[in-house]
Amino acid sequence: MLSLLIEVLTDGDVFVDVGANAGYFAVPIAKIVGSSGRVHAFEPAADVAEQLRRGARMHGVEPWMTVHELALGSGDGSTHLRADPEHPEDSTKRSLFMWNGPTVAEVAVRSFDGLVAAGAVDLSSGLHAVKIDVEGAEMHVLTGMQRTLERDRPRMIVVETIESHLRRAGSTVVAINAFLRDLGYVAMNDARVARPLELNAVFVPA
């Protein structure tokens, strides 16, 4: 997925990483878009957001990477971020929809469209690619950025599509496919990539 995103991004582009964790996608892509580009990385957990900032400093991309220490959703509010009870130390498995896991923190939730409208996210140069990996809340994030996707039509949208995770947040893989299809996007099939896209889907403009 990283290689697919890098193929569609270039110097000066804007990338949004929702569920950035420690920066596996955000940091190398920041190197691709360069100082004339911008990476907006969303990571609600304070401990992991600090790891992300340290990684950005270490790799020299901090000046053009903005770390937003909040969760994205369909609207504004706050909720509990919880760890996976079976893997409590694994920060990649934390979720807003993990009802039986230990609470990591209470986190702010904002809609992406609202942040753009308020000027908290600057998309004056457009939006060229998006990655969303939020342990089930993917549909909520997409709903909250619908106006931006319609306006800017990024070249690629990568979405984690684990059915069990989506269902605990009240959604399905079918619903995500339908939502993006209505916005004029199609899913790349495995025949168009070098390796199967396990547990994720990559959407491009139709």
Strand and helix map with partners:
Layout: H1 2-8, E1 14-18, H2 26-33, E2 38-42, H3 46-58, E3 65-68, E4 71-73, E5 77-82, E6 103-111, H4 112-118, E7 129-132, H5 138-144, H6 146-152, E8 156-160, H7 163-168, H8 173-182, E9 185-187, E10 200-205
Give a brief rundown of this model.
The protein has about 210 residues and is α/β, with parallel strands linked by helices. The protein has eight helices and ten strands. The protein has a seven-stranded mixed β-sheet, with helices on both faces.
Explain this structure to me?
- The model has no long low-confidence stretch (mean pLDDT 92).
- It is built from eight helices and ten strands.
- The chain has helices at 2-8, 26-33, 46-58, 112-118, 138-144, 146-152, 163-168, 173-182, and strands at residues 14-18, 38-42, 65-68, 71-73, 77-82, 103-111, 129-132, 156-160, 185-187, 200-205.
- 32% of the residues lie in helices and 24% in strands.
- It has one domain: Rossmann fold, CATH 3.40.50.150.
- Strand 2 (38-42), helix 3 and strand 3 form a beta-alpha-beta unit.
- Strands 3-2-1-7-8-10-9 form a seven-stranded mixed β-sheet, sandwiched between helices.
- It has 206 residues and is of the alpha/beta class.
- The radius of gyration is 16 Å and the shape is globular.
- The longest helix is centred in the N-terminal third of the chain and has 13 residues, at 46-58.
- It starts with a helix and ends with a strand.
